Amino acid sequence: MAALKNTSRRSMLSAGILAYRNGAYGPEVLLVHPGGPFWRNKDGGAWSIPKGEIDGADAPEQVARREFAEELGPSASIGPLQPLGEIRQRGGKRVIAFAGEGHFDPAALTSNTFDTEWPPRSGRRQSFPEVDRAEWFNIEIARTKMLSGQIELLDRLLAIAIESVGK
């Protein structure tokens, strides 16, 4: 009889926050770069909103706020959130996103960590930060940095901003 394969799968639903602020030259958004050896030399198309998996009956906004704090650290603050809706990333993961005005100094980043076997098949486990960098980007640069499936969130954020100016 064949050995049973571990079938535990990661959740395919996450929640996250697209933090924004008014920069010197217009709106800016806060993106995070994933930590760990796989992402070390990747930049364009690798950055993301701070987000995390939704487990069970967790409310998406609560998960988004929790992950924002876990990935950035206690100095990160976020105001009231507005829903940006759901997007689907390339691998099929769905992300429920929110937008909120944020305050964060990227130099204060203190991300939680994860352990993984590295190098692969070495039998050695190493700890890596979940997020190794955070940075504020203007909208056009953010479009080149973000995961392709999340770029739509920038357009939704801009639509909200235009809508609120018209009121």
How would you sum up this structure, described in words?
It contains 3 helices and 9 strands; from the N terminus they run βββαββββββαα. It has helices spanning 60-72, 139-145, 151-165; strands at 13-23, 26-34, 51-53, 77-78, 82-88, 94-103, 113-117, 125-129, 131-138. The radius of gyration is 17 Å and the shape is globular.
Task: Note the topology.
Blueprint: E1 13-23, E2 26-34, E3 51-53, H1 60-72, E4 77-78, E5 82-88, E6 94-103, E7 113-117, E8 125-129, E9 131-138, H2 139-145, H3 151-165
Parallel strand pairs: 1-6
Antiparallel strand pairs: 1-2, 1-3, 2-9, 4-6, 5-6, 7-8
Tally of DSSP helical segments: 3
Q: What shape does the CA trace take?
A: globular
Strand coverage percent: 35-45%
Structural class: alpha+beta
- Given as residue ranges, the uncertain stretches (5+ residues, pLDDT < 50) are 1-8
Radius of gyration: 17 Å
Helix content: 10-25%
Number of strands: 9
Distance between the termini: 67 Å
Would you tell me the overall average pLDDT? Answer: 90
- What is the ordering of alpha helices and beta strands? EEEHEEEEEEHH
Q: Summarize this, please?
A:
With 167 residues, the chain is an alpha+beta fold. The protein is built from 3 helices and 9 strands; from the N terminus they run E-E-E-H-E-E-E-E-E-E-H-H. The longest helix is centred in the C-terminal third of the chain and has 15 residues, at 151-165.
